[in-house]
Amino acid sequence: MERRFTHTKQIFTLWFLLLLTTTAGFAQIAPYSLPPKWYFGHRAGMDFTGGGPVYMAGNVWDAVSYSNQEGSTTECLPNGNVLYYSNSCRVANGANVNFGPVLVNGGGNSSTQGCAGIPNPANPSTSFYYITTAVDASGGSDCSPQSNMGVWVYPVSSVPALGAPTQLTTPVGVGEFIAVASDNADGYKIISHAVDGVGNTNFYIWSISNTGAITTAPTSFSGTVNGVNWKYQGGVKINKCNNKIAFLTNNGFEVRSWSAGTIGAVIRSNTSLGMGLSYGLEFSPDGNILYLTDLNGSLYWYNIGTGAGPTVISASNTGSGSSQGPGYGNLALGPDDKIYLSNRYSAADAPAAGKFLAVINTPNSATAAGVGFAQTGASAFALAPGGANYPSTAAGVITLGWHNPFLNIVGSAVPTCESFSYTYKQYYGATIAVVAGSENWDFGDGNTGIGATPTHGYASTGTYTITLSVKDQLCNQTYTSQKNVVVGCSAAPVDLIRFEAVKDGSSVSLNWITATEVNNDHFDVQYSTDGIHFTTIGTVKGNGNSATKHEYSYIHAYPSSGINYYRLVQNDFNGHQDISPVKSITFEGVQISIVPNPSDNNFNVHISGADHAEIIVTDVLGREVYKTKSQELASAISFGNNLSGGTYTARIITDNDSQVVKLVKE
């Protein structure tokens, strides 16, 4: 059945179904998002929702029920509000009310990185996970019995409420620190390192899939640094671009490649740093610099790329600290790409003196001298004034998991089937910058497109899988997402916005314009003298798939006297055709008719309005088979006795006109 060109685009409904990417080779690369609000320590917090942080003082941690010696975490809803926060032992909601068990399984308030929070990949707006760990069975200041230690994962609803936990490890042989990062397929990896007192160097990795399923059997990778004693503090960190992992233990560290949950070759390793009791670590935003702290109060800079360092940035500390003495604690890379670390204060420090988090303001600096370190003052972060506000009694700031961004493909309302766009945001709403022009679309029907808002129409109904890839500006790496599109009806493959026939001297100029084209191979230009029977007189190549305007033209050099009819037949690559409306144009003057046609014998040519004429007849191969000239036009000219059966073309040429007529010899 022939289809007709439409001059207005068809409007219909599409249903979009999210297909979380699981295909091998799809890269879901950083930048990852972090919660915009952090609660930590004794009535201390940070709010990044306005860009640079301001203090928050509403959390209820205190020296009794919410004492926080080290690790803490915060999880936020998509609107940026706090859903829950924890000191690894207790969990409170955004209104500072404890919920769940009084003491959670696996928790330990003396765990450097004792808890972390992430959204549930299956429903990141309303469902979350809370992950805990503690020191191993050889000792430690824990808030849960040793029989309940190890790594545990709690589901958290947006009420919020804790669900039944899943235990990932037994108490013996686990590290007291965990890291969480994307697995490059819309899921997450939970990473720990063994600290078991028997020389174990292994990393352990568990998965949370894009459906929210949790693996209980870890994947093991052998490291090179030995965590020989639980007292050898340390940490595990993944860099922002999700391609490096670092582990710090007593007087040493190693940096390895990291990809989708696989730990690769050593990039840098050092087991004799000359540090004191090592403690915290963090990558610079670009992943080239590693920052380290020890409990003797020193902060170190190390260039991963060149191996330069470690260089001491600061060897002093504000505040009396705890029984271990003054020192810097854990480090955390903020949403503003600055690194924050705790100045350890003790309860004896006077609140009026003011409490600060130290800040590394330019952590990507290729030199230790250029990092912009500020321990106190205007370039540091001032905690809430008044009261006993300090980050912790010992050293912790906050433990966070990098959160997957959301690359969401959407269709426009009018026309839904042909216009697409996307949003690329962190889970709490901040837009992620992409490299200009890096958007690449695969529409699932053999056609592709580029740009932020491509236009595409489908030639037939069905379900199509759209794939979009974009490149982020920070890591210059590609993030890919897919959606299924169910097309309820097909759109015209070519949106023809103009088609006209105009006189051009003794010729006819045919002009047409398309707004969009889908699978457009070519146009056949067709001609008729009666408006019913059309023949193809020319072909014009189409532009395949295009969302931009294109102009076309064709010259008919020999129109007939009288009414001339024209139309376009648009041809898809797959053989489908669309037919345009018919246009007509009239030439006054010579009138020519050939009757009968078809004929089994002679054709009789009648010409009026001219003194003489030349008749040339050619076969389907263009070979001339008959030619005559006549000065006696009052009578009919007859020919055809010697022609074999078939189709021929007769051109009748006069002084002022030239006409072409198709002949059929029966």
Overall geometry: rod-shaped
CATH 2nd-level architecture of the largest domain: 6 Propeller
What is the alpha-carbon Rg in Å?
38 Å
Report the top-level CATH class of the largest domain.
Mainly Beta
Work out the helix count: 0
Task: Explain what the structure shows.
- The protein has 666 residues and is mainly beta.
- It has four domains: 3-20 and 410-487, Immunoglobulins (Immunoglobulin-like), CATH 2.60.40; 37-288, Neuraminidase (6 Propeller), CATH 2.120.10; 494-587, Immunoglobulin-like (Sandwich); 591-665, Immunoglobulin-like (Sandwich).
- It has no helices and 50 strands.
- The strands form twelve sheets. Strands 1, 37, 38, 39, 40, 41, 42 and 43 form an eight-stranded mixed sheet that branches. Strands 2-36-35-33-34 form a five-stranded antiparallel sheet, with no helix packed on it. Strands 9, 10, 11, 12 and 13 form a five-stranded antiparallel sheet that branches.
- Mean pLDDT is 79; it is low at 6-29 and 228-232.
Task: Give a short summary of the structure.
The protein is 0% helix and 44% strand. The chain is an all-beta fold.
SSE layout and pairing:
Elements: E1 3-4, E2 14-19, E3 37-40, E4 44-47, E5 54-56, E6 73-76, E7 82-86, E8 91-93, E9 115-119, E10 127-132, E11 152-157, E12 161-162, E13 166-167, E14 178-182, E15 188-193, E16 202-208, E17 219-222, E18 235-238, E19 244-249, E20 252-259, E21 262-270, E22 278-283, E23 289-294, E24 299-303, E25 311-314, E26 328-333, E27 339-343, E28 356-360, E29 373-374, E30 381-382, E31 406-411, E32 420-425, E33 440-442, E34 448-450, E35 462-471, E36 478-487, E37 494-504, E38 507-528, E39 535-546, E40 550-556, E41 562-572, E42 577-579, E43 583-587, E44 591-595, E45 603-608, E46 613-618, E47 624-630, E48 637-639, E49 646-653, E50 658-665
Parallel strand pairs: 1-42
Antiparallel strand pairs: 2-36, 3-4, 4-5, 6-7, 7-8, 9-10, 10-11, 11-12, 11-13, 14-15, 15-16, 16-17, 18-19, 19-20, 20-21, 22-23, 23-24, 24-25, 26-27, 27-28, 28-29, 28-30, 31-32, 33-34, 33-35, 35-36, 37-38, 38-39, 38-40, 38-41, 41-42, 41-43, 44-45, 45-48, 46-47, 46-49, 49-50
